Structure formats: C-alpha cells, structure tokens
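Notes from hallway chat w/ T.B., transcribed later so I don't forget. T.B. wanted the structure written out for a chain they're using in a teaching module, and asked if we could keep both sequence and structure tokens in one place. Agreed to drop them here.
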Amino acid sequence: MKKDLITLLDYTDAQVLDLIDSADRLKKEKGKLRNDLEGKSVALVFQKPSNRTRVSFAVGVHELGGHSLYLGPDEISLGKRESTHDVAKTLSRYVHCIVARVFHNKDIVELAQYAQVPVINALCDLYHPCQALADIQTIRERFGKFKGLTLAYVGDGNNVFHSLMIACARVGINVNFAGPEGYDPNPGVLKQAKAIAAKNGVTITCDRDPRAAVKGAHVIYADVWVSMGQEKETAERVQEFKGYQINAPLVAAADKNYIFMHCLPAHRGLEVTEDVIDGKHSLIFDQAENRLHAQKAVLLYLLKGNKK
C-alpha cells in the first residue's frame, strides 16, 4: 500500500524520528550523488511560486539519482483547466511521485486519494510538513536533543505553525504560542497536537502575551504576518500584529543560548528586526539547507522504504 506525506498527524513518533535520523545521515554525505531513485521521475506540481521548496526538491531528486519535472499553474491548474481527480490519475501513469504545493488542503487530499503514487505536501493552507521536519532537524543539530526544550512561536497560527506544533509534540518539545485574537491555530489541529503532546509528557500553550511565551524559551520562531495571497490585508495585519515583533527587548527574556528560526521569506523590520534575524542566534539558513536533507529523507522513505 502506498504511503503519502500530507500531514505529520498521519505519522507515528517513531516514523518522524526515523526521518530526522535519515536526514542527518544524508547531510553528512552532502553533495554525494546516489542512485536510489535511478529511473524514477518526480512531478513538482506548484500552484504557488517558491524559492526553497522548488529548488530543494529539484536538487534533492537529482542527488538521489532521479529526474524532476516542474509543472507550474500555467501547465496544471487544479480543478480549473482539469479536475484534480484527472490530474492525479494521469500523472500516476507517468511519474513515481507527486510533490504538490497548493492553495487548499482539499486539493492535496484529493490528489493523494486518487494518485497511485506517493504524494508529498509541499505546502497547503493547513499544513507544511516538510518545513517542520527541517525545523526539528535544525533544533536537534544545535541542542543535541529534544527533551527539555521549549519553542516559542510568536505571530500567526498558520500552516507553518500547525506542522511545527505537531512535529514538536511528536518528538517531545514544549510549545508556547502567542498571537493576536483572530489568528489562533485551527482548533481541530490544536486539539490533535495537544493529545500527542500530552502522551509524550510535553505541553502546548496558547496565549496573547509574547513575553510570557518567550520567557525561558530555547527556540524563538517567527513567520511573515502577510503570506502569499493576503497582500490586500497588509495594512490591517500590520496593525493587528503590532506588539508581536521579534526584537531585542523580547528575545532578552529567552534562554541565553536561544536560537531564532524563520521559515523564510522574511520581511525584515516587520515580524523580526534585522539585528535578530541577522544576529549570532539566527539559524535561518541552516533551516533552509535542511529542507534539502529532510526532503531527501522523505523521498527515500516513500519511494525506497527509508533505504540507508
């Protein structure tokens, strides 16, 4: 039976840890060309443009010996030019895996439902599992562990936070969320993540006070206040997120050895000040690099059974 990666809710704690271990091994052989995916093709179906996601997947497939084919919205417009059902069925006849970056979760779910090959969620409005895997890989690289750590996420309870929250719950990292009213995480996702966290002896808290969230935290995480497709809301969002900027006074409350993380792209001067994002505690480019290694681990797991 084929396996997909739509959300880390579908993966066990052990499977998530195995993916991170695999990503670490792949990083140690950085740049080495392998033949695991020799003769295999991967379709990159992107309804939204991307820098890190597109490049890291294309390079990752190449380094594993496969071939990637980029299909932008001009080639495939899910549910418009052609039904998602038909796209899934057709691509399954040509390729061995579909990586999809879409606007709506229902589209990635439908792709996975009808595709006969593995489907990887490269971002939708509800989840961003590949980013979360790279994030927890980066956290363990710096601290050498998960146990006893607390991550503070300040901003919008969006798709990035959903997957990060689930990943942290799976590996045993406490999570503190702080955001303005109206920007809380999805209640259903939050409930499921809290259940996983409780099982693993950690907590997920949601509050309005960013200082309380950051106090003593080992990881401080931010994302943009205005995501792609929300440009018309810029003025409103900037006003509502006022007070949630990651800056020097705020990070002073964190653990002295804290790290700053951001999934990028970043709007310097809005959600984070330049001195923080470009400072010695920032690991944003380690995160970006680890997208490559974590996604190679996912590709191996789905297409080769996590071959080492």
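Follow-up for T.B.: The mean pLDDT is 96. Might be a good example for the class.
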